[in-house]
């Protein structure tokens, strides 16, 4: 695997791959990689001739009081995981390579960014959409792979790609979980030994809500309250939100019908954790995606 740090070098590599008629699959990450990231790389590997992964902790998507400085980093370990999973090129640019001067251009999707995580992280999705737009322009992949773990991010990126006619296919990859259901995340490292068992309440609350839907519950309010009660009564856990939203618009659902996402977020100690289950409901037919 090559590690490339400059846009110029990456473009030259991509140009040669393109000239050789190769398809390019791309995974954007912030590093400190785990099995969730590996699943994206494996999916890209299975579908593409060349797999490019980026590691870039993007300052633009962190709020002023968030964990940009503390965000965990381990390039050596990440390089090993990527090599093991068949990545061809790691693109690891510096902040000055990506932002040589303050940005004057931003990609903003206000209707999708002011909901769910956007309420506690008001500038986050503008930072995400802007950097992903830049990275897609730099890598120019045929397909880019994103984790369902960040369900709102998937909605934002799909909409940006459609609105701006970016020539890339977006694929979302299912959430990889720990044995007790906790969604794998680089930020799980913030959980103390005492806090860790309580973090499983997010996935348990989602699963109980999904089971209630399978059993016939069709009121979004009932489902929302079920999830909120389960999470807010768990010791040491502070609920951020529990919602049922339409998958692509992220509008709150009134009834349980169509393509929906059950989505929750909570604070546990230093960590803010998110999780979701996408579901498709047509009358009595329910599919957990
Ligand atoms: P991050 O490094 O947190 O920015 O994540 C990079 C990509 O990996 C994003 O598309 C995430 O949604 C995805 N990802 C992170 N954790 C998981 C997980 N547990 N399962 C599936 N995808 C994940």
Quick take:
The chain is 36% helix and 22% strand. The chain has 289 residues and is an alpha/beta fold.
Keywords:
10 strands; single chain; globular; 4-stranded antiparallel sheet; alpha/beta; 22% strand; 6-stranded parallel sheet; binds adenosine monophosphate; 289 residues
Could you walk me through the main structural features you see in this protein, from its secondary elements to its overall organization?
This protein is α/β, with parallel strands linked by helices and 289 residues long. 36% of the residues lie in helices and 22% in strands. The chain is built from ten helices and ten strands. Helix 9 packs antiparallel against helix 10 (220-232). The two termini are 33 Å apart. The model has no long low-confidence stretch (mean pLDDT 97). The structure holds adenosine monophosphate (AMP). Residues 29-30, 36-37, 39-40, 146-147, 149-150, 173, 175-176, 183-186 line the site of adenosine monophosphate (AMP).
């Amino acid at each position: 695997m090559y590690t490339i740090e400059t846009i110029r070098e990456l473009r030259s590599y991509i140009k040669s791959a393109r000239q050789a008629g190769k398809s390019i699959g791309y995974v954007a990450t912030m590093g400190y990689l785990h099995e969730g990231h590996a699943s994206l790389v494996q999916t890209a590997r299975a579908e593409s001739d060349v797999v490019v992964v980026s590691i870039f902790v993007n300052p633009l998507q962190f709020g002023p009081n968030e964990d940009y400085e503390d965000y965990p980093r381990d390039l050596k370990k990440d390089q090993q995981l990527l090599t093991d999973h068949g990545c061809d090129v790691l693109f690891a640019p510096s902040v000055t390579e990506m932002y040589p001067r303050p940005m004057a251009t931003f990609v903003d999707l206000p209707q999708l960014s002011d909901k769910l995580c956007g309420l506690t992280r008001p500038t986050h999705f503008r930072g995400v959409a802007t950097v992903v737009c830049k990275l897609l322009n730099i890598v120019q992949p045929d397909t880019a792979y994103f984790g369902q773990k960040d369900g709102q991010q998937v909605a934002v990126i799909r909409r940006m790609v459609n609105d701006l006619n970016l020539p890339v296919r977006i694929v979302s990859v299912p959430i990889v979980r720990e044995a007790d259901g906790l969604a794998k995340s680089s930020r799980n490292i913030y959980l103390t030994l005492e806090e860790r068992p309580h973090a499983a309440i997010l996935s348990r609350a989602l699963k109980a809500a999904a089971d209630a839907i399978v059993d016939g519950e069709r009121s979004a309010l009932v489902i929302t309250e079920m999830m909120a009660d389960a999470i807010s009564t768990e010791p040491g856990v502070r609920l951020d939100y529990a919602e049922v939203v339409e998958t692509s618009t992220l509008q709150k659902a009134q009834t349980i019908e169509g393509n929906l996402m059950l989505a929750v977020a909570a604070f546990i100690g230093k960590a803010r954790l998110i999780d979701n289950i996408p579901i498709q409901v047509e009358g009595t037919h329910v599919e957990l995606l």
